Amino acid sequence: MLIEDVEGDLSELFAERASKNRIIAKVKYLIDVILLFRPGIVRNFEIKNGLINTAMLKNYFKSAMRNLLKYKSFSSINIFSLTIGMAACMVIFLFIKDEKSFDAIHQNNIYRLCEVQSFPGTNTQKVALSMPGMGPTMTDQFPEIEKYTRFWGWGSQLVEVEEKNMLVERVVGVDSTFFEIFNFNLLEGNPEEAITGPTDAVISKEIAIRFFGDTDVVGKTFTIRDGSLEVKAVVDVPENSHLQFDIALSVFAAVNEADEFNNQFGSNYLNTYFILNEKADIAALTEKFPEYLASAMDNPDINERYKLFLQPLPEVHLASMDIEHDYNNHRKFNGQYLDVFVLVGIFILIIASVNFTNLTTARATYRSKEVGVRKAIGAMRQQLLSQFIFESVILSLFALVFAFILVLVALPFLNNVIDRQLAIIPFIQDVQFLPAVLSITILLGIIAGLYPSLYLSSFKPVIVLKGLKNKEKKSIFRSSLIVLQFSLALGMIVCTLIVVEQLFFIKNKDIGFTKDHIVLIEMNGEMQEKYAEMKEELLSQSNILGVTASGQRLGNNFHQWGFKARVDTGIVNFTPSNVHVDYDYLEVYGIEIKEGRSFSKDFATDDGLAFVVNEAFVKELGFDDPIGQSVGHSWYPNDSLGTIIGVTEDFNFNSLHFEVNTLSMVIHSDWGFSEMSVKINGQNLDAALDEIENVYAEFVSDFPLQYEFLDDHFDEMYKSDQQMGSVITIIAVLSIFIGCMGLFGLASISIQRRIKEIGIRKVMGASVKELMFLLSKGFATMIFISFVIASPITFVFMSGWLENFAYRVDINPLLFIIGGAVALIIALSTISYHVIKAVRANPVSSLRYE
Amino acid sequence: MNKYSIGEFEEVVMLTVAVLFENAYGISIKEEIEKRLERKVSVGAMRTALNRLEKKGYLESEFGEATAVRGGKRKRFFKVTPLGKKVLDQVMDTRKQLWDSIPSVAFDFKFG
């Protein structure tokens, strides 16, 4: 009855505030709602003769509040450390939820067809690509497969809409079944009829608005490369989809002979997805693949070269780190890191709870009188137990509220650091979220409060009321909790140091070529034709140091093509990575030649018949004297192979997660390039970019300039690792911070208890130095034990992580020492406040009453 | 002590309800108080006061028509009851008596 008008009031206020600032309005709304939870409003608490003894609960509540307020510093340490722990867990939860939400809108029986390729002369690799013929023929052959769709990325295309030219970045070809297999939300049109013929197009919401200013555009037309296309549907492609596209066309828009395409084998250049029927047995199905491959392809070695496997859709986003040539996998993330995050979240909660347990136990003597009185007037031990647990639950509930507020405040900043769009508001509205969080919090309060409650409720009334002190023994329990806490914190510090070292190593390792200040420009048709003149014009600019071009970009593995070489025993076939380049490619990128020479225009045969290979290539073939050896592409006749003219160092053209593969570079001047690389003067970045823009505008009229920096591309490759690094750093800082808060509180209690001892020692002539040593000794020992426990575990764990990288740092024992020293210094300086205060106090003030 | 007792905030709320007459509901009362007394009032605090006053019988309330602005929620309009009026009168009388009884010399401050 009351609800209706209060709700109305709140939404009226909200509307008014939201007109100024939406976020502030939301926060104020939340605060108002929380403030409304007061006795007079929610419910009248003065129920008499209720079933539960509310009078007692009320009293518990009252004494809990009094204690909270009386010992403000302890309460705030308790609540604050729990708050930080909970907030960290919430953020981790949001992060994981976000990653797990990838592709969740689709059905769960979708699989991606992947291959394990083991070609001779090249590293065995998993690839996400497959051949065009595989989808249709496998669907025919296996009853388990219901439907297939291919997904073929065509890169950016120039689109003509209503007589305007626009560049669209992600144009793809798919099969007619694509929108039946994938549950993308179609704003207009229906999935069965979205892509039926080669002139049908499905465009994304953003593109619809960019093209036509509206999403209701079914039936409108546009043109790509002179082919007219009709919009059949408008699709909403969410950010959390591993497939991203702006325009989807039929694969047959780029293919003349549909039958031939559907039976095309040999090269792998597109993704294939299957939808399997409910009863399909993946293992049994996979076993039948070798037989299929043998029948589909006319190659006796096929099953040694290829192994097909099906990757379930949920794994595509989170378990594809070892898969190469994975071009259509938006924001691919290392799923193992999510497990690490869960672990780290649990750790920080443990550290926070330990603070709580320790401080409450250490403070027990302050409340011994209360326990005595309660027992004397008839309280049972059970009742006292429930009282103290009730208190700790209340504390953890407070912490929960603060944690929510902290997360609200900190999220925008964190989103910036980890490049995510996390939000907690949608979860607060979720029916399951709040009860779950509440029960976890209550559980946490009970666990953290259990030991102190047991301890407190065990006091004997006669002893405490007489004023006799309970004999304080050295608490092994408390010390071991501190050791646990600092082992975790220390471990995380060392992990952070190692992660940072490895990331630094990746960033700064000499990978054998220049990656800084290289601008990559995509080459379109017009640029292909005018490449030579454009290059000349660019080179005449003052801030441009070099211009070259290639068929593929550095930083990923290059495509592997068949290759042959003449050795003593005859011709061997193998499959190195290949890239075709311009004459001055090696010079512009500063790739070092170890033997022989680079490409040169002086030799006519350098166009197509000369190869520059890397050391891995030479080693693979076992050439002692590589220069002059006969090698060639697999399609060259055996009697007219080319020769090796130069050998380069093993530079890391692929990510440092992988070993350097065998590589061959060649010039094919008639092939055209896909990308131009322009090396610019780093001191005059803006001027150089202006120069590029001007030259570009001079030569290319209908295609807008699109460029990217090579080092950005490299950063992108290590993003998953980079983000893991930031998260673990933040958590490590927080955990040592929480640990120190606990230590601070504990030190104040334990030193307080020894204040008379210190006084007497001082009177007897102990020096300040000796006293400081005496007081710090205990804490230092605990940190040392933590160090001994944490180091080996951390070492094993981090060795495992470094395995992910083919190129990695060795774990330096010095880092452990540094981590330990940092923890020790921080801990000792934390307690030094109390130590120094106690040691410098005048003994008179502590001994006066004796 | 008086037969009826109300707190300072309650008095302010009642007076504001009277001032606003027929347009006294949650938000308008809150804003009026904030405007006139230049102090922040939380929705919660005011709601508690209103409830308490209604329970004591100094205020009465009824629902108005639903409006779209408030997400279709009705407003609850408050009115001062005759008993409430009596209380307010009494508060004012008490104050007046007190003022009247102040000897003139009491406020005869000498500075310096």
Secondary-structure blueprint of this entry?
The complex is a heterodimer of chains A (850) and B (112).
Chain A: H1 3-18, H2 22-36, H3 39-42, H4 54-70, H5 72-100, E1 110-117, E2 125-127, H6 134-141, E3 145-153, E4 157-161, E5 164-168, E6 171-174, H7 178-181, E7 185-188, E8 200-204, H8 205-212, E9 221-224, E10 227-236, E11 247-250, H9 258-262, E12 271-276, H10 282-287, H11 289-296, H12 302-305, E13 306-312, H13 313-318, E14 323-324, H14 335-362, H15 368-376, H16 381-418, H17 425-429, H18 433-456, H19 461-466, H20 476-508, E15 518-522, H21 525-539, E16 544-550, E17 563-567, E18 570-574, E19 577-580, H22 585-589, E20 593-596, E21 610-614, H23 615-621, E22 630-633, E23 642-648, E24 663-666, E25 675-680, H24 685-699, E26 707-709, H25 710-717, H26 719-753, H27 755-763, H28 768-802, H29 813-840, H30 843-847
Helix pairs in contact in A: 1-2, 4-5, 4-16, 5-14, 5-16, 5-26, 14-18, 14-20, 14-26, 16-18, 20-26, 20-28, 20-29, 21-24, 26-29, 28-29
Chain B: H1 8-20, H2 26-37, H3 43-56, E1 59-66, E2 74-80, H4 82-101
Antiparallel strand pairs in B: 1-2
Mean pLDDT score of chain A: 87
Shape of chain B: elongated
Round the mean pLDDT of chain B to the nearest integer and report it.
83
Oligomer: heterodimer
- The share of residues in helices of chain B is 40-55%
What is the beta-strand fraction of chain A?
Answer: 15-25%
End-to-end Cα distance of chain B = 39 Å
Distance between the termini of chain A: 65 Å
Low-confidence stretches of chain B: none
Q: For the report, how would you describe the main beta sheet of chain B? A: 2 strands, antiparallel
Low-confidence segments of chain A: none
Q: Could you estimate the helical fraction of the residues of chain A in percent?
A: 40-55%
Tally of alpha and pi helices of chain B: 4
As a whole number of angstroms, the C-alpha radius of gyration of chain B is: 17 Å
Number of strands of chain A: 26
